[in-house]
User: Fold this.
Amino acid sequence: MPTLIIDDREITVKPGTTIMEAARSLGIEIPHFCYHPSLSIAGNCRMCMVEVEKMPKPVISCAMPVNDGMVVRTNSEMVVKARRGVMEFLLINHPLDCPVCDQGGECKLQDYAVKYGPDRSRFQDKKRTVPNYDLGPVIETEMNRCIHCTRCIRFSTEVAGVEEMGAIFRGDHMKVGPCPGHGPLTSVLAGNLAELCPVGALNLKPFHFQARGWELSKTEGICEHCAVGCHIRVDSMENRIYRIMSRQCSSINLDWLCDKGRFAFEGMTEGRLQVPMMVPESGGPQVEVTWNQALDRVAALIQGVAPEEVAGLAGSWGQGGEELYAFQDFLRHVVGTPHLDHRLLRKDFSPDSIPLLRADLMLNTPLQDMERADAVFLIGAGPRFEMPLLNLRLRKASLNGASVWSLGPRHLLSKLENLEEAIVLPGEEADFLRKVLNAMTTRRGPKAAVAWANALRKAQRPVFLLGRFAVNHPNAETLRRLVLAVLGKAEAVEPGWNGYNRMISGNGAGAHDLGVVPQRGPGYTKLGRRGMNAREIFEQSALGKIKVLFLMGLDMESDTVVEYLAAAAQAGTKIIFQGAFHSAAVDKVDVVLPGLVHGEKFSTLTNCEGRVQRSGRVVHGPIMAKEDWRILRALSQRFPQELPYDNLQELWEAMGREDRHYDPAVVDSGEIPKACDHGVGLTEGLECGAEVDAEENETDRLVLILEPSFYRDTPMSRRSSTMTKLDGVEVLRISGKEAKKHKIVAGDRVCIECNGHRVEVRTVVDERVKGGVLLGTREAMRELGGEKDGFLQVTLKVL
Amino acid sequence: MNQSAPVQIVFKNIHKSDSHTLPVYLEGGGYKTLAKVLALTPEAVIEEVKKSGIRGRGGAGFPTGIKWSFIPRNSPKPKYLVCNADEGEPGTCKDRDILRYDPHLLIEGMIISAFAVGSERGYIYIRGEFNLESRRVEQAIEEAYAKGYLGDNILGKGVRFDLAVHLGAGAYVCGEETALLESLEGKKGQPRVKPPFPANVGLWGGPTVINNVETLASIPGIMEAGGAWYAGLGVEKSSGTKIFSVSGHVNRPGNHEVEMGISLRALLEEYAGGVRGGWDNLKGVIPGGSSSPILTREACETVKMDYDSIARAGSMLGSGAVIVLDKSVCVVRALARISRFYRHESCGQCTPCREGTGWMAQIVTRIEAGGGRAGDIELLEELCGNISGKTICALGDAAAMPVAGAIRAFREEFVYHVEHGRCMVE
Assistant:
């Protein structure tokens, strides 16, 4: 362990530590531009030069490893002179436009110019001018300001895995910008470039000229857009959010944030429900009413039918633990119905009879450990678009040499190295996994399955990831059990390593923990009686057997939801919607109770690893809208049994009593909660089910797989203008083989028909898609009514 | 020093017709040394080269034997030998003649060197403009493969060495060894941050030796006659022969292989036909390529052409490109041209070089054009100090040295330019 002296202070550090890192651990800040702890060392800005005794020249502290007995000075005369020289060089071609620069006030160059720079320029020659580039809707460029630190290039290449940014030309003609042939950025992580840029060359386009950094109030928060639960900083002013920045958290999101987490918030003020509405007794369109009128009506509707004829459905996205807990509490204990669920897109509910525990439902490998994985198996998972920040961990693992194996209906755009893909028709996944299971013992079988088995057999830190496609698969439970069975045969696994992981969406983990499922109460407590699951509720509503349907925070633009609700309304079921966003389907419900969104209320969010994190209020929502749990609390006053909490503290304590992970003493301690602290092992004693019906393999069958658009899969992101701009043109992807068969040329418009619904769409021939499969976005195919219990079998006609 | 019988080690064959072909090379005793060397141990070869005292001929003058001994013996990664034939230093044209007229000498030198450092894979990185040269080297490599001098089993001794040519794309900075490696790997030619040095982490991350063409072409001669013999040539600490590329205002410009330590005046007068208009018409000499500081005539009178003597005179031996300027030359104008070159060739990676070379070139050009301002000369001097030693590679120093040197040696010309807005040289 080398010991060295920095500015007369002694420190002992690990071998290989750089002077910069050693100084940081002493709290000595060495000025720098190009150095970034999460990127490779470039050593090009030369700002971090320090003096090392016995070395004739100043050395760059970011790249120089420490030696035992080194004597370093970070502020000697030599260093100050060198630093002043570098600052002068950086400033000669930098425009003096701080007053109109977005970076002003949070600019390293500006800060260091004040600290180390000259007060006037000796440069009296011609300044360089550099053209700007169109980098898409996220990044605004002002390349005259670029100081060529190459952080953006290193981030794109190393972290995001897209070689989109580069430097062309030499010397003082060197231009940092998109690589020739590239334009708008496609990394889904583009916003990080603006955050990384130490000057105002790359700015956030939506934030361009909107506010000055120092005017904004900065609130720490948690991102709600996927189940990674990234740490964010929300910058706001006068009741408006201006931008969202990443907040460093080494165990979750490192230094990064995806573009959705950064800009989906723009949609929070669009199309909001402002006041309570209801359909008058006499019928007709909804009219504005007071809260009392609305709540009285809801109470009357519920009390007008038997408790068993009431059911509740909650969304998982954007719903905090507070309202999820209150929701199940209200339905179970105030109304007295067991019928509630949040798993709207699920097709296979068979494990509800077991039922599953916390560890079965979430990740068991902490995000941080994923980068140590040596073999990654993706089962129907597209991690880059399901959880971009999780994908970065997998990418790191793959860069470190882990092999990546993917099973699914399509090729991935994953930016993972060493990727081997097994592309199978929807419904044939279990078949493949059975072959892998067989190959684990017999070492025989199809080549791909044997390769999987070989990789798993020698893996010490395998990671299996059941993705959205697998979770919402008609054979989801079979796939899940097969994964467990295959993993059980892996023999080289490191003690303490758990490689079973299941992706979860939104705050689904919170909904499970807090009992918004028909088979378990909060904290996975056993129930006397299992209620109806989401599909049964929908179906029974459509049959009129469920007479009052209470919806909270559902995506009222989801194809499946809209279709079912229309049928329910037809059957005379009364529908109550509590939520934030207006849509055509909301217009048709009987009572509308306007709620708040994330950022306007306190939300407890549970991430995919089971970490429970709290996010606070940044802005106020519409004046008449109310915090969701308070709506339920107020509603319960109209029933004999009131909800027993009058303020947040009491609610949090009640949640903590049900599930120890929600204990406010733990959640509010300021510590980052532990990942994967599930407290229970995996559900054991499950036999691998071989009983699943093999799908009939018709030759003419075309399966349409609907994937949510990454940028527009929630009501809020759909309303964000930046997300809308980022979203590609909606098309139908079709394999070359299928295109040939149907005589389709790329760009042709085709008509897709399914169950009497039809939709017209433009096609793109994409060789990543398997024959027999069509790939579409949910957004474009909404008219088809969504998937219900199986895959969409469609017919295709060329127009 | 006797002009009638100069020792020729590198240029021993180049006067023969068809010297670039294998038969001619073999006639002159080619590849005999290789056979001798393969009977030795690699350590013995390195020892012999150390004994010779040869220093790298590319410009930096690092002792070759010591460089080789930095290569770890047991490396899990393959070791590489790279020949730097990206001869780009303005004024230098010695490597071109070796490549063009005696490629087999280089190849034999590389095989011996690879054997010494334990490398089985070598590259010759040739500058992109060397069209004929690269074709000749490739042809020679083909001939060598056909005769079993290269390949899996060299001369039946079980030694393996594969050699390939890689063409550069016209960047001066790729003559810097780590930029050369980047370029060889297919990336943009930009120097790497050191440490780690190429001896530990070089091409594709493997231990790598990078030597200049002239250095490698000297190896067969050293191994043939012995390190001690070579060390006896030249002067202490600058042993052996060196090719000087004499250009500019001399009557007979060209490459001359002479022993180190020859006086500059003797080099110019005995080999290069004397300064145009006689010795008294000499204004100054840039002794080691455009990056070396200019020497005044007074300094040229006495300076000897070896590493230490030139360093004492305030310049450097560099690549051995001797650029002679007579009294018709405006030093400011010459410097403006040189500064424009470095501005154009800076890779742009690190701040002092990227911004500094451009700024210096603008100032010198402005002074030359009559737009000089009071304080410009002092500013230039300070900028040189702010670039030198602060950059990733030596290109920053290379750009700053001629500026500082020209101002030091011919300050009055700069002052005249600034004050009068025109040149004092008619």
